[in-house]
Amino acid sequence: MSDTNFVIFYVDKPAASAAFYSALLQRPPVESSPTFALFALDSGLMLGLWSRHTVEPAAAGRGGASELAFTVADANALNRRHVDWSLRGLPILQAPTDMDFGRTFVALDPDGHRLRVFAPAPQEPAAAQRASSLASA
């Protein structure tokens, strides 16, 4: 089976979205045209921004129905990212909060796509021990 290594967001203004993500990700796109921009992320994932006006077949939906998730090391890193993104003017849909999977917050890009940042919950010692035992088996 082939790898899943691209996520494509349909955007209203590709150049404006490319500028937004270039600043947010602190890197330029690896490919750019009037209707499309492509970013290579450190994880190997490629993030494409395609004009909703030129994509074929035509896109029916809008942003907000899915999320692009960014993992950070811990709650302190998450809180720093929240402050950074807030200062950049990103709308914050969910303030930092603790959930069953860890600490998280959600921001929105200019097209309403959800950007979730999360720090996985620390494993309890017993769970970490079981995971270690399974890995060595």
TrEMBL record:
Please report a single Pfam family linked to this protein. Answer: Glyoxalase
Write down the SUPFAM superfamilies for this protein, in alphabetical order: Glyoxalase/Bleomycin resistance protein/Dihydroxybiphenyl dioxygenase
Q: Which residues form the VOC domain?
A: 3-120
Which positions make up the signal peptide? Answer: none
Q: Please give the superkingdom of this protein's source.
A: Bacteria
Q: Which InterPro entries match?
A: Glyas_Bleomycin-R_OHBP_Dase, Glyas_Fos-R_dOase_dom, Glyoxalase/dOase/EhpR, VOC_core
Give the Gene3D superfamilies listed for this entry.
Answer: 3.30.720.110, 3.30.720.120
Name of the protein in question? Phenazine antibiotic resistance protein EhpR
Gene responsible for this protein: ehpR
